[in-house]
Amino acid sequence: MFPENEESFNLVKSILLDTIPKDISLRKHKEDNVLLVTNKNQTLFFFNDTAALFLSYCNGKLTVKEIIDKMSDILEVQNNILTDDIVELIRILQKDRIVYIKV
Known about the structure:
The chain is an alpha+beta fold and about 100 residues long. It has helices spanning about 5-15, 50-55, 65-75, 80-95; strands spanning about 20-25, 25-30, 35-40, 45, 100. The chain is globular.
C-alpha cells in the first residue's frame, strides 16, 4: 500500500478522487487479456484488464471518482475496494509516466 501508513494513504486518496487523470502513453496495444503500453521513454509495460479499463477513461475530462463509479458498475466491484486499487494503480502509472494527474 502507498504511502507508508493508512492515514497518509487516506489523505492521498481523498486528494486524488477530485483530480483528472490524462493518459500520456506513447502507444497501447491489447493482446488477449494484456494491455501493452509504451511510455515516452520507449519502456514497455504490461497491464491487466482492470488497468486497461482505467486507462480507457483517462481522457483528461473525468475525475478519478467519476472513473471509479463507471468502473464499479462495469466490474461489479464494491466502490471502496476498487478505490483503493485504483489509487495504487495511479501511483504506478504516474511513476512510469503513463498517466498525468491534473489537480
